[in-house]
């Protein structure tokens, strides 16, 4: 797993859970092969927002095969899984770019499950 140790960075939080072993393994392999620094928690992959443009262009090449139409006859396929992951990553990038609040902590450091009183 790659690590990024820069406390002033903003993060792109990609919601791919460790409970999805195929998605998690494919995304980890993709990030490592493309030399992206990232943090991984149980529910997210977090990548520095400074890598957004490079991540977006690499995901387009990795996840979407524009010359091949989706095959609806197959429910689960590698191409289908890659497209699904690509869409998740692109949505996370769009959300990070639209985020007006500072996002200087990777998602692993945010506890959304605590009850508020």
Can you give keywords for this protein?
single chain, 117 residues, mainly alpha, three-stranded antiparallel β-sheet, disordered N terminus
**Which stretches are poorly predicted, pLDDT < 50 over at least 5 residues?**
1-8
Number of helices: 3
Rg, Å, rounded: 15 Å
- Which structural category fits the helices and strands? mainly alpha
The dominant shape is globular
pLDDT averaged residue by residue: 80
The strand order across the widest sheet is 1-3-2
Order of helices and strands: EHEEHH
Proportion of residues in extended strands: 5-15%
Helix content: 25-40%
Largest sheet: 3 strands, antiparallel
End-to-end separation: 37 Å
The number of distinct β-strands equals: 3
Please give a structural write-up.
- A hairpin with a 4-residue loop joins strand 2 and strand 3.
- 39% of the residues lie in helices and 9% in strands.
- The longest helix has 21 residues, at 78-98.
- The model is unreliable at 1-8 (pLDDT under 50).
- 22% of the residues are buried.
- Strands 1-3-2 form a 3-stranded antiparallel β-sheet.
- The radius of gyration is 15 Å and the shape is globular.
- The protein is built from 3 helices and 3 strands, in the order E-H-E-E-H-H.
- It has helices at 21-33, 52-63, 78-98, and strands at residues 11-14, 39-40, 45-48.
- It has 117 residues and is mainly α.
């Amino acid at each position: 797993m790659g690590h990024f140790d820069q406390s002033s960075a903003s993060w792109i939080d990609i919601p791919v859970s460790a409970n999805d072993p195929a998605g998690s393994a494919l995304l980890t392999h993709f990030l490592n092969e493309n030399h992206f620094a990232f943090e991984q928690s149980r529910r997210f992959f977090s990548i520095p927002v400074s890598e957004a443009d490079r991540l977006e262009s690499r995901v387009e090449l990795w996840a979407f095969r524009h010359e091949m139409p989706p095959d609806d006859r197959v429910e689960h396929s590698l191409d289908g899984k890659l497209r699904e992951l690509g869409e998740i990553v692109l949505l996370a990038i769009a959300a990070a770019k639209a985020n007006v609040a500072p996002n200087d902590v990777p998602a692993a450091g945010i506890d959304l499950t605590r009850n508020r009183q």
